[in-house]
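Blinded run. Sample ID left blank on purpose so nobody reads anything into the name before looking at the predicted structure. Input follows.
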Amino acid sequence: QVQLVESGGGLVQAGGPLRLSCAASGVSFGNNAMGWFRQAPGQERAFVAGMSWSGGNTDYTDSGKGRLTISRDNAEKRLYLQMNSLKPEDTGVYYCAAVFVGLSRRTGGRSEREYTYWGQGTRVTVSS
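Blinded prediction complete.
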């Protein structure tokens, strides 16, 4: 089982950077594909970025490519999301999520139904 705790959210001006972190505890973090999701105000939770257990495969939405970078440190059991050139539409609560994949090199997928473990979220507000 994996427990996830996000941090790093806050208020930032448009165009600025922010780095989110997700600390994991429990066994087998290194065998979990990971993902970041965002729930904007009044909207459903949506995929932002994903990464395979090894970090060798990543997936981003078109709006995130070139601005967002997902990374992980399996030794430290941490997942990160570096966000640059932030836009007001990036505002929302960001969740990290995990799904056990064993040695599969796949990312976790873009549907929240594909993930087993979730953090409580960290809020990001981008002001224009």
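Unblinding after everyone has recorded impressions. The mean pLDDT is 95.
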